[in-house]
C-alpha cells in the first residue's frame, strides 16, 4: 500500500519528515498541514476547512528531510501549490482498511462503512469498550440504579425469574440433600429481582483445593482476551467449572438432585431470557447476565457463591467477582458486532431459515398464508443483502483492483437481478404480463428512491449534526452526467414508441350523443404490434438491443475515466501516517475464501427467497386494493436497498456526504447501465414479457427526479432544508403512484 510505485496515489505526509511539526502519533488534524508563513500554507489551511466533507486531511507535497518546512511550496510553482488544495489524504489503520477506504471512492465499487478488519482495542471509544466488557467490573459511585431500563427489566424478566428461583429453592429444600442449593436459590431470587448494584462473588477456594483450582484454570480472572460475544468473558477451557475439579463433588447426592431438578428449569428460563434480550439488542446486558449465570454461577458449589449488595464506598475485599451489573439497557448496542457482523444482521439470520423452511415445507399454505410468506421472504432479503455487501467489501479490500472490479460488477446488483429474473420467469410461465410491469415499477422505484430519497434522507439526518455539509461537486457531476446518459438511453425506446406508435383504446363511449362530440375512452395504450408487429420488431426491438449494448459500454468508459485517466477528480490518497497503536498487522474478520463462501451461500439463499417472494406475490397483486405501481416502487424497490441506506446515513453523520450521495448515484447508474441491459439480454435467451417500454408515469417521475437532483447538487454544498425538499418530492411521487390505476394486464 505504501510502495514507491504507487507514489501518485499514496504518499507520505509532510509531518513525518519535518522536524518542527507534530509527529504522526498526534492527532492527524494538526499534523498533516504545513507550517504557517507562506502563501501556499495559508491557502492549504483555508481550503482544509472547505474540504471537510470527506472527513479527512489535505495532502501536502512530500518534503525531503534536508529541506526545512517553510520551503515546502517555495520550490513549486503556483499550479503545483494548488495541487495540495485539491488532494485529500485518508488515514487508514492498516493496508486492508486503506484498500477499503480507497474502494469507497472508486466508481462502480460498493460503498461500505463497517470495518473489514478488527480494530485495535486501545483505539476504541469508552462507549464501545463498555459494550464488549465483562459484567464483573466494580465501578465507583455512579448515581441511582433506578432507571427506565432497570425498571423495564423488572417488569419483563425480574419478577418471574425471582418467583421461579423461590419455587426451585422450595423444591431443593424438600429433597433435604439439596438444601445448600435451596439457600443459594433463595439468595439468587432476591438478586435477579433487582440485580443492579449487587455482586455475585466466588469465595476463595480452600487451601486443600486451591492448587487444583489454580492449575485447572490457568488464572484467567482478569477477563482479558474475551472470545465469546454473548458471555462477554473468556471461555473456560472445559465445560466443567474450574473450581469443581473434584470428581467426588459431582457424585454427591445433593449435586445430582440439583442437576436433575433445579438446574434444567433455571437453565431453560435463563435461555429464554437470553434469547429475548439478545433479539431486543438494547437489552444485551441482560442476555450476558443470564448466559453467565447458566455457565458459571449455577455450576459452582453453593458454598462458594456469595451474593451481596455493593455499598457506595465499599470495594469487595476478597474473591472473584462473577457478576456485577449496573444497567439493563444500553442504547449504544446498535454498534455491537459479532465477528465483524452487525448485531441486527445476526438477529435477522434465523429469519432466513424460518422463511426457507416455511416456504418449501408448507407449500400448500397450511401453516401460514401467502401474504405472510411474501413478507418473510422480503424481510429475509435485508440480512442477505448485508452479508453480500460485507463479502464484496472484504474480497475487494484484500484483492487487487481487477479482482475487486469483477466482484463488484458481478455481485453488486445480484440482489435486485435475482428477484427481477425470477419474477419474469414466473410471469412468462403463467402468461401474466403483470409481473413484467411489477419489475418495471421496481426498477423505476429504485432509480427514483436512490436519486431523491437516499441523498435527501442523508442530508436531513446529517444536517441535524452539521449545519452545512459540503461534497465534491466534480465527482458528483460525473455521476450526474452518467445518470442523464443512462436515463436518456433507457427511456429512448419508450419515447420512440410514443412518437410512432398507434394509440389504441379498449372501449370508448360518446358522452354527448353527438358523433362529433366528446368520447370517454378506457385502457388506452400505444400499440406497437400494428401490421403484425412491424413497428416493434423492425424498429423498436433493434433500438432496445442497441441501447442495451451502448449503456454497458458507457459504464465501462465511466470506469476508465474515473479510475484511470481522471482519477484525480476523486482526490483520494492513503497516508503512511498511521494512528497510534497501528503498528500491528491487520486481522481481517473474513478471509478471502471465507468471504467467497459466504457470498455464494448468501446469493443462493437470496435466489430461494426471491423465488418464494414471486411465488406468493400473486394473491397480493390480485386481492389488494393498492395500485401495483405503488407496491413495485416502494416495497420491492427499496427493501433490498436498506443496507445501502444505512451506510449512507452513517457516512452523513460523519460529515462525509460525498459518499452518501455516491451511494444513491451508484445504485441508480447500475440500474440503468447494468441491470436493465442484463434483463433485456436475458429475454433473448429466455423469452419473457419484458420490453423496454415504460409507462408515461415512470418516464416523467424518473426524468424529473434526475433534473431536481442535479439542481440541488450544483453548488457542492447542502443542508437539511434541501434534503427535506428531496424527501418531500419523493413522497409526493409515492402519493401519485398510490392513487394511480393499476397497469394494464394486472
UniProtKB/TrEMBL annotation:
Tell me which stretches of the chain form a coiled coil. Answer: none
Which residue windows does the record flag with biased composition (Low complexity)?
Answer: 213-233
> Which GO biological process entries does UniProt record here?
intracellular calcium ion homeostasis
List membrane-spanning regions: 151-174, 256-286, 336-360, 372-389, 401-422, 442-464, 476-496, 543-563, 595-614, 626-646, 667-686, 692-713, 720-740
Give the residue ranges for region: Disordered: 1-36, 211-233
Q: What GO molecular functions are on record for this protein? A: calcium:proton antiporter activity
Q: Which GO terms describe its cellular component?
A: endomembrane system; vacuolar membrane
Sodium/calcium exchanger membrane region domain sequence ranges: 372-491, 595-737
Entry's localization field: Endomembrane system
Keyword Metal-binding listed: no
Q: Which UniProt keywords apply?
A: Antiport, Calcium, Calcium transport, Ion transport, Membrane, Phosphoprotein, Transmembrane, Transmembrane helix, Transport
Topology relative to the lipid bilayer, per the entry, is: Multi-pass membrane protein
Q: Does the keyword Phosphoprotein apply?
A: yes
Question: Where does the Inner membrane component domain lie?
Answer: 148-198
Q: What is this protein called?
A: VNX1 protein
> Could you tell me which species this protein originates from?
Caloenas nicobarica
The encoding gene is: Vnx1
Amino acid at each position: 500500500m505504501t510502495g514507491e510505485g504507487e507514489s501518485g496515489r499514496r504518499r507520505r505526509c509532510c509531518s513525518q519528515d519535518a522536524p518542527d511539526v507534530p509527529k504522526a502519533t498526534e492527532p492527524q488534524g494538526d499534523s498533516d498541514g504545513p507550517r504557517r508563513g507562506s502563501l501556499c500554507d495559508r491557502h492549504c489551511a483555508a481550503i482544509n476547512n472547505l474540504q471537510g466533507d470527506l472527513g479527512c486531511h489535505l495532502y501536502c507535497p512530500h518534503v525531503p528531510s534536508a529541506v526545512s518546512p517553510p520551503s515546502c511550496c517555495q520550490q513549486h510553482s503556483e499550479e503545483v501549490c494548488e495541487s495540495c488544495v485539491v488532494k485529500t489524504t485518508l488515514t487508514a489503520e492498516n493496508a486492508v482498511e486503506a484498500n477499503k477506504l480507497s474502494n469507497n471512492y472508486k466508481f462502480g465499487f460498493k460503498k461500505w462503512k463497517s470495518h473489514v478488519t478488527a480494530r485495535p482495542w486501545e483505539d476504541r471509544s469508552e462507549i464501545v469498550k463498555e459494550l464488549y466488557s465483562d459484567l464483573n467490573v466494580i465501578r465507583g459511585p455512579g448515581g441511582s440504579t433506578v432507571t427506565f431500563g432497570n425498571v423495564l427489566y423488572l417488569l419483563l424478566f425480574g419478577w418471574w425469574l425471582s418467583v421461579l428461583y423461590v419455587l426451585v429453592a422450595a423444591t431443593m429444600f424438600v429433597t433435604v440433600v439439596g438444601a445448600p442449593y435451596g439457600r443459594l436459590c433463595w439468595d439468587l431470587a432476591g438478586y435477579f429481582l433487582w440485580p443492579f448494584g449487587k455482586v455475585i462473588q466466588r469465595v476463595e477456594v480452600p487451601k486443600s483445593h486451591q492448587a487444583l483450582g489454580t492449575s485447572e484454570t490457568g488464572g484467567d480472572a482478569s477477563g482479558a482476551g474475551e472470545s465469546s460475544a454473548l458471555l462477554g468473558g473468556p471461555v473456560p477451557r472445559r465445560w466443567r467449572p474450574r473450581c469443581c475439579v473434584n470428581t467426588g463433588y459431582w457424585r454427591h447426592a445433593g449435586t445430582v438432585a440439583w442437576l436433575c431438578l433445579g438446574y434444567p428449569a433455571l437453565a431453560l428460563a435463563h435461555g429464554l431470557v437470553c434469547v429475548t434480550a439478545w433479539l431486543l439488542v438494547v437489552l444485551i446486558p441482560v442476555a450476558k447476565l443470564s448466559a453467565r449465570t447458566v455457565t458459571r454461577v449455577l455450576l459452582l458449589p453453593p458454598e462458594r457463591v456469595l451474593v451481596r449488595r455493593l455499598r457506595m464506598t465499599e470495594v469487595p475485599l476478597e474473591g472473584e467477582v462473577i457478576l456485577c451489573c449496573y444497567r439493563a439497557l444500553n442504547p449504544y448496542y446498535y454498534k455491537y458486532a459479532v465477528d465483524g457482523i452487525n448485531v441486527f444482521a445476526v438477529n435477522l439470520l434465523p429469519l432466513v431459515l424460518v422463511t426457507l423452511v416455511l416456504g418449501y415445507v408448507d407449500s400448500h399454505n397450511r401453516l401460514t398464508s401467502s401474504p405472510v410468506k411474501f413478507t418473510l421472504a422480503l424481510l429475509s432479503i435485508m440480512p442477505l443483502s448485508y452479508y453480500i455487501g460485507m463479502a464484496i467489501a472484504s474480497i475487494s479490500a484484500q484483492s487487487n483492483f481487477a479482482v475487486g472490479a469483477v466482484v463488484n460488477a458481478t455481485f453488486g446488483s445480484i440482489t435486485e437481478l435475482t428477484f427481477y429474473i425470477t419474477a419474469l420467469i414466473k410471469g412468462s410461465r403463467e402468461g401474466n404480463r403483470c409481473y413484467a410491469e411489477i419489475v418495471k415499477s421496481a426498477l423505476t422505484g429504485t432509480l427514483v428512491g436512490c436519486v431523491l430519497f437516499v441523498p435527501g434522507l442523508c442530508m436531513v439526518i446529517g444536517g441535524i449534526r452539521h449545519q452545512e455539509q459540503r461534497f465534491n461537486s466534480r465527482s458528483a457531476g460525473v455521476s450526474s452526467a452518467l445518470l442523464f446518459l443512462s436515463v436518456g438511453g433507457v427511456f429512448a425506446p419508450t419515447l420512440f414508441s410514443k412518437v410512432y406508435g398507434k394509440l389504441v383504446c379498449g372501449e370508448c363511449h360518446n358522452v354527448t350523443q353527438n358523433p362529433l362530440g366528446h368520447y370517454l375512452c378506457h385502457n388506452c395504450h400505444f400499440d406497437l404490434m400494428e401490421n403484425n408487429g412491424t413497428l416493434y420488431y423492425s424498429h423498436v426491438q433493434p433500438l432496445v438491443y442497441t441501447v442495451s449494448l451502448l449503456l454497458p459500454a458507457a459504464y465501462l468508459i465511466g470506469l476508465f475515466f474515473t479510475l484511470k485517466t481522471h482519477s484525480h477528480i476523486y482526490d483520494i490518497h492513503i497516508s503512511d501516517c498511521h494512528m497510534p497503536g497501528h503498528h500491528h498487522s491487520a486481522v481481517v474478520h473474513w478471509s478471502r475464501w471465507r468471504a467467497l463462501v459466504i457470498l455464494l451461500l448468501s446469493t443462493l439463499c437470496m435466489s430461494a427467497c426471491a423465488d418464494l417472494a414471486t411465488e406468493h406475490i400473486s394473491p397480493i397483486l390480485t386481492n389488494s386494493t393498492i395500485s401495483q405501481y405503488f407496491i413495485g416502487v416502494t416495497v420491492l424497490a427499496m427493501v433490498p436497498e436498506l443496507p445501502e441506506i444505512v451506510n449512507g446515513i452513517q457516512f452523513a453523520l460523519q460529515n462525509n456526504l460525498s459518499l452518501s450521495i455516491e451511494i444513491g448515484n451508484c445504485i441508480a447508474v447500475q440500474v440503468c447501465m447494468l441491470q436493465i441491459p442484463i434483463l433485456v439480454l436475458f429475454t433473448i435467451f429466455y423469452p419473457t414479457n419484458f420490453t423496454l417500454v415504460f409507462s408515461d408515469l415512470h418516464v416523467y417521475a424518473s426524468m424529473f427526479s434526475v433534473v431536481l437532483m442535479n439542481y440541488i447538487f450544483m453548488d457542492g454544498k447542502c443542508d437539511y432544508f434541501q434534503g427535506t425538499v428531496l424527501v418531500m418530492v419523493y413522497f409526493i411521487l409515492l402519493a401519485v403512484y398510490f392513487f394511480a390505476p393499476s397497469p394494464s394486464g394486472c
